[in-house]
């Protein structure tokens, strides 16, 4: 039996360790009609390859050639600390995932149309960062992979679930989920504060994290990553905390 309603979108808040993040009401409070009209696929992205030494390394590996960049990796937020939502504890840490049968679970409870569309774009075998959110120190703790593509989220029909949606119909479900499986822990915890330092530097110098959705759409619990974004963040696990 999967852990109930552990993932969040509706009414999500920014991570506590990012006090200067500007939380706009606009896009997250867009009407359902406007949200549903958005593309079911994440847009193609483009960015300059790498940054400083990282850029030189990647260019050397690829012979200096750059390929077209698309969103092919993901960042999934989940709350590792107890929080009650309509009487149900929505806590779900990476340790909870590892304790599941075959270290696999459904990623349910997403109630934001853009996040849902991202879920529906996920492909079998794609990897994602498991991100601890809304906690004392948010950041990336592990890597997971998609082991089942989008299918109807059962919690939308469960009246006892915090994410029950009385307007959704079984013949035409509004909400989807995917199954994810634990791959490995990152070699070290990669905190939001460190990723943000690189993001700010890349905004100035044109590095791969300049448009990272973790900072441009920080309220979304499902976020796409370009190959360059994923590779750069993954490279941080080899270094010392900044």
UniProtKB/TrEMBL annotation:
- Provide an example Pfam family for this protein: EVE
Q: Where is the composition biased (Low complexity)?
A: 41-52
**Every EVE domain range:** 73-235
Its Gene Ontology cellular component terms are: nucleus
Function of the protein: Specifically binds 5-hydroxymethylcytosine (5hmC), suggesting that it acts as a specific reader of 5hmC.
Establish whether keyword Nucleus is in the entry.
Answer: yes
**Name of the featured protein:** Thymocyte nuclear protein 1
Q: Which gene encodes it?
A: Thyn1
Q: Which ranges are annotated Basic and acidic residues under compositional bias?
A: 10-40
Q: Which SUPFAM superfamilies match?
A: PUA domain-like
Subcellular location per UniProt equals: Nucleus
Give UniProt keywords alphabetically: Nucleus, Phosphoprotein
Task: Region Disordered: list its residue ranges.
Answer: 1-62
Task: Work out whether the entry's keyword set contains S-adenosyl-L-methionine.
Answer: no
Query: Which InterPro entries does the record match to this protein?
Result: 5hmC_binding, EVE_domain, PUA-like_sf, THYN1-like_EVE
Which regions span the lipid bilayer?
Answer: none
């Amino acid at each position: 039996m999967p852990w109930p309603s552990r993932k969040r979108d509706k009414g999500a808040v920014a991570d506590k360790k990012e006090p200067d993040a500007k939380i706009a009401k606009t896009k997250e409070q867009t009407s359902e009609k406007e949200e549903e009209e958005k593309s079911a696929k994440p847009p193609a992205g483009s960015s300059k390859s790498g940054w400083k030494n990282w850029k030189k390394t990647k260019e050397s590996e690829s012979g200096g050639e750059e390929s077209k960049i698309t969103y092919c990796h993901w960042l999934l937020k989940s709350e590792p600390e107890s929080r009650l939502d309509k009487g149900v504890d929505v806590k779900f840490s990476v340790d909870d995932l590892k304790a599941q049968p075959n270290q696999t679970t459904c990623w349910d409870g997403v109630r934001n149309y853009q996040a849902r569309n991202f879920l529906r774009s996920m492909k079998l075998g794609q990897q994602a960062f498991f991100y601890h959110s809304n906690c004392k120190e948010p950041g990336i703790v592990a890597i997971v992979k998609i082991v089942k593509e989008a299918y109807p989220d059962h919690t939308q029909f469960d009246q006892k679930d915090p994410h029950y949606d009385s307007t959704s119909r079984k013949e035409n479900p509004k909400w989807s989920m995917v199954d994810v499986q634990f791959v490995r822990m990152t070699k070290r915890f990669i905190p939001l504060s460190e990723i943000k330092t690189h993001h700010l530097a890349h905004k100035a110098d044109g590095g791969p994290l300049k448009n990272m959705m973790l900072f441009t759409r920080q309220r979304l619990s499902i976020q796409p990553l370009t190959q360059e974004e994923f590779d750069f963040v993954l490279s941080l696990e080899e270094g010392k905390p900044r």
